[in-house]
Structure formats: C-alpha cells, structure tokens
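Known limitations

Structure tokens in this collection are predictions and should be treated as such. Users comparing against experimental data should check residue numbering before alignment. To illustrate the layout, the record for Oxidoreductase NAD-binding domain-containing protein 1 is reproduced below. The input appears on top and the generated tokens appear beneath it.
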Amino acid sequence: MVVMIPRLLRGSVGAICTQAALLRLTPSTLRHLTRSSIVFWFQVVSAAKVCGVASESPSVKRLRLLVADKDFSFKAGQWVDFFIPGVSVVGGFSICSSPRLLEQERMIELAVKHTNHPPALWIHNQCTLDSEVAVRVGGEFFFDPQPTDASRNLVLIAGGVGINPLLSILRHAADLHRERASKGRGYEMGTVRLLYSAKDTSELLFKKNILDLVNEFPEKIACSFHVTKQTTQISADLRPYITEGRITEKEIRDYISKETLFYICGPPPMTDFFSKELESSRVPREHICFEKWW
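Generated tokens:
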C-alpha cells in the first residue's frame, strides 16, 4: 500500500491536518503494515508495535518499539515522526538507541518527557504494551562515519531530554569500538566525552547505561554530569561524575582540536550559546552540529 503525502517539517503546526489519511488507518490496517509500508516522497512510514514501556525518570517514559519493516533504518542521532491512530497531532521524538539494536533485534527506543503535547500525553497516559503506531525517520543531525573516514573525537553536549539523540550517537560510537576491537577493521573511532546537564540527578536520564559504557571503554569514553538545582544527597556511585552547576564554556574549550566534532542538543538558549562559543573559538562550522527543538 502506497500513499503519497507531502513531507512534514518536524514540529510544524501543519502536522495537525496533513496526515489525515494515515491517521484514519484502522487497527487491522496497521497490523497489515507490519508487513508493508507507506512511502512519503521516498521516505518510509513503517508500522511499529510497543513492546516495552518504563519510567526513565519522574517525568520521562521510555518506549521500546518493534519495527519489523526491513526498509526502515536510521542513523545515530536522527528522530522519528510518531503517528498515533486517533490522535490528530504527529509527534517528533529522537531515537535514543543505536542503529545496531535495530539491525539485530528490529527494535528502537524513545524517551518522551511529559508535556501537554497530545502525542506525549498519549504516551504517558494511554500507551500500553502492544499499542500499534507508525514511525518515519527524519533529521540531518547524525553521526554516520564510513570505514575509510578519518578518525574523529566527539564532544556531546546535552541538556535535559536533549540526551536522547546524543545517547544514540554514544551507543553507536561504542558499537564502532567493539567492531574494531573484535574484527580489527571498520571505522577507527576516537574518544568521546559527554557533558550532560539536568535539574537534578533524578532527571539525568540513562545514568546507568552511560556509566556502563564509560566503564567498558575507560580510555575511550568519559562523561561529566552537571546538576543545576540539586536538593537531595548525591549517591556515592554518581558523586565522581557530578558537577553542581551548569556546563561552562571553559570546559568546552578544553576539548577543542582539529580532530573533534561537537554535537549539541538541549533547550534552544543552551544550543545557541554553545554553538556561538565554539564558533568564536574558531571551531569550523562544519564541526559543530546541533539539534533545536521547536
């Protein structure tokens, strides 16, 4: 089944009505879509089934989706348009899993903050195991090196739920390290440093996953967690990684080199600030990648 509908801009108000044809799909049609897909201007919209729902923090739900369609793929850092039957607004959520998880298990993961946006409300209040939705990949914010590309270091700067696409990139970098170590070939990944800021430690998402990667690759992956409004005691296991206060421009400048790429995702003022600081420090624009919310 093929339906031609113009491509949406992520976050566009136009999402409310331009996807009407898709949103009228019945549950039986969605079930059929697990074996087929809808193409929008050469981009694939694939059926997906919720196979995991968990609380990642007091305000964030984590979803695991099964996407059986073999034509569905993504690059680390990209997002999906998220279509919910019966909900007239289309969501836009960054993927936080690695492409390798999709390749091996046909799974992707999302982490969605509670807001009054209808798709987020549905995820927090109505989504259950086996709920059927549809997804389409988009975005130019990604890390997708080819085996013969020059080795690069990464600095990932995250604020709040802006960690989502950066976690996907971090996990992809870890997969590249594993492939190089086990097979002696593939892309030669440099170092990765994550600088991640949130209100308090309860809102630092994926803490365990991140620290597991730091411990697995102590010479290759490092992280620094920043908390801005911490009111409770910080646990002993987190304390070595915690700085109380915002990420500073001095910290960022310490990692500038010609081999380093910077990826930034967080609230727009934070993204604007660090991208301008890097430019003023003579980092080439093509080495500064950022994702803005709107």
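For this record: The radius of gyration is 19 Å. The longest helix spans residues 163-183. Please report discrepancies through the issue tracker.
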